[in-house]
Amino acid sequence: MGAGVVKPVNTRWLRALAALALLVLASPVFYFLQIWPEQKSDHQAVVFNIAQGASLTQVADELTALGLTDSPVLFRLYASLSGSDRELRAGTYEVPSRQNARELLALFSSGKVQQHAIRLPEGMNLRVVSSLLAEQAVLEHRSTGWQHLQDELDLELPFAEGAFFPDTYFVSAGASDLSVLQRAHKAMLAQLRSAWNARADNLAVQTPAQALILASIIEKESDAPQDRRQISQVFHLRLKKNMKLQTDPTVIYALGEAFDGDIRRRDLRVDSPFNTYRYKGLPPTPIALPSRASIEAAVNPADGDYLYFVARGDGTSQFSRTLEEHNAAVRRYQLSRGGP
User: CA 222 to CA 216: how far, in whole Å?
Assistant: First the structure.
């Protein structure tokens, strides 16, 4: 028998069918990858928290519950396919209104979490600072007490009191109190190092640690920035002359919680290395967190030969060279309550 004639296949129709099949299959993929991620959700600005260790499913479900996405399944799939699921960072985020899935994932991957201001005030001692930190609900409290900070933080200074720079530190929710103090300690080291490198000649203090102790006393002695360098001059001259510093703030620190707001004559006799009416030289540690201005004053005292000063009652101080002048100033500004 002769070979039959085979009719050629109409490849044009096959190509058309294949193209149609690809279009049918590709349309959902295109929609899912290109259109859906760009669709805005009609929601208000909210604060959204991704807990430490939260799964992508948990995040997607919570976003759906808040109306930030319309499909937890699509959100999970898009996050997985785009690789964003491996970049999500825990924290509290401020989510603007009308965000789409792509924008949400970009935000949650950025690490730009909501920041909380933690203020360490100058002039406060460590017991007060620890209490302030304990009241911060956004912090995780890991410290076992201010008495143990030296060991808990492995501080570079030989003491914990006064070893933290007073400033405002911004942290995310869940940061630990120890992490805040560690940052403050590094900031203090930087400030102290800078001031020490620019110190004046012939100081009575021999080390940066001693300068920090003196700075803490200066911080507590005056609210007037213009007086701090002169107060520093008084203390430097007293130290050089081997005189007692006789400064009330060190006595107040020695009394601790027993201090009721008034220093009495008997308080000046308290047996404590912080009592500079009883013991010569600097106390063993700072008595407060000194500001940068006080640190700079401690290592750059003003010129002069004053040995005494007394508060005028308006935040400034009256300086005297002799005990006779000082006693007259005390009568004028203290005993007469500032009267002439």
Answer: 11
Q: What homologous superfamily is domain 39-113 in, according to CATH?
A: Endolytic murein transglycosylase (3.30.1490.480)
Q: Which residues pair with 100 in a beta bridge?
A: none
Q: What is the pLDDT of residues 83-130, one digit of tens each?
A: 888 888 888 888 988 899 889 999 999 888 888 899 999 999 999 999
Percent of the chain as helix, strand, coil, to the nearest 5:
50, 10, 40
Helix (H, G, I), strand (E, B) or coil at 94: strand
From the list 261, 236, 242, 263, the residue with the least C-alpha distance to 251 is 263
Polymer length of the chain: 340
pLDDT in tens, 287-333: 999 999 999 999 999 999 999 999 998 889 999 999 999 999 999 98
Q: Which neighbouring-strand residues pair with 50?
A: 91
Please count the CA atoms within 13 angstroms of the CA of 97 that sit on its side-chain side. 4
Tokens found for residue 151: 């060991």
2's tokens: 């002769």
Amino acid at site 43: H
For residue 23 the two structure tokens come to: 């279009």
Name 128's Cβ contacts closer than 8 Å, sequence gap at least 6. none
Residue among 95, 159, 132 nearest 287 (CA): 159
Phi/psi at 172 (nearest 5 deg)?
-90, 160
Contact 300, 232 (CB under 8 A): yes
Quick: pLDDT tens for 152-209. 999 999 999 999 999 999 998 888 999 999 999 999 999 999 999 999 999 999 999 9
> Rounded CA gap, 113 and 97, in Å?
16
Neighbours of 197 (CB within 10 A): 9
Question: Which tens digit of pLDDT belongs to each residue from 14-40?
Answer: 555 555 454 444 455 555 566 766 787
User: What are the residue boundaries of the structural domains of the chain, listed by start?
Assistant: 39-113, 115-193, 200-335
